[in-house]
Amino acid sequence: MTDRGRYIALEGWEGSGKTTQAALLAEHLGAVLSREPGATPLGEHLREVLLGADYWPSPRAEALLFAADRAQHIAEVVAAHLAQGRDVVTDRSYGSTLAYQGYGRGLPLDELRALIEYASGRPDPPPTGHRLPEVILPDVVVLLDVPLAHPRTRSRQKNKGAKRKDDIDGIQMTLLGAEESHTALQGDKFEDADSSFRERVWHGFRDLCAAEPERWVLVDGTGRRPGVAERVREAVAGKLSGDA
Ligand code: TYD
To answer: I need a labelling partner for 196 at 20 to 30 A (CA). Which of 3, 18, 206, 240 fits?
Structure first.
């Protein structure tokens, strides 16, 4: 029976370089690259609802929709790969729910934690040959730390292109579920949020990182990409070997 794969999440504010670093880390580990929201066909629809301008879910509805996306992601992508011994790197995970819906929108953290646990439950029946825990949470969460006012350099085209190929530092990566979205040419609701919301989210991420040091690790996200990538790799290796 193979050992299960490792599940690693990159978290951070928009413009932290998280998406690029997730791709570089996945490449380095030979891992499956995934994301929340939107890594599955159902998740693609939920992503449009959540980030597009057509619907404005209430905070609770928003939390439930992100939870639905996560449940589908785990059932359809994460559990199966981990069970086969493949590592999975995800661009965002449960930390974003706590930071955005909890610290940002003001929903109670304990209620969100219960929702996250429910959404992250191992699928039933579990994948064959599995050695998966009952609740599938990332083994390591990397919080990419950039100052709140860090200039956003990424392209507005980030959501565009069915099964898009991202050319990152010469590496061609296929991003799961990155299908065309009407949010392609505009900021999404979260990017356009007011500065107090952004500040609460930013502080929320730092609190979450400090509160769960056995799982979370803060990595300096400033400076050139290769240097950040090196720090991310070291931090993940340290956490996985249990000595960081
Ligand atoms: P995305 O376009 O993937 O942007 P980013 O490059 O910033 O990751 O947008 C995802 C947005 O969804 C982002 O603003 C954070 C938000 N989000 C939540 O509010 N809660 C969640 O649980 C998740 C996974 C994401």
So the answer is: 18
Answer whether residue 2 is part of any domain: no
DSSP at 240: H
Q: Tell which residue, 116, 8, 128, has the closest CA to residue 67.
A: 116
Ligand 1, closest atom to CA 104?
19
Give a yes or no: residue 219 inside a domain.
Answer: yes
Residue 127, pLDDT score: 87
Beta bridge partners of 9: 90, 141
Query: Counting beta carbons within 10 angstroms of the beta carbon of residue 95, is it exposed (0 to 12), middle (13 to 18) or buried (19 or more)?
Result: buried
Cα(14) to ligand 1 centroid in Å equals 8
| CATH code of the domain containing 184 | 3.40.50.300
Domain count, the chain: 1
Dist CA 50 CA 59 (whole Å): 11
Per-residue model confidence as pLDDT tens digits over 229-240: 999 999 999 999
Distance 92 CA to ligand 1 centre (A): 7
For residue 177, what pLDDT band results from cuts at 50, 70 and 90? very low
How many angstroms separate the first and last alpha carbons of the chain?
A: 28
213 in a structural domain: yes
Q: Which residue range forms the structural domain that includes residue 57?
A: 7-241
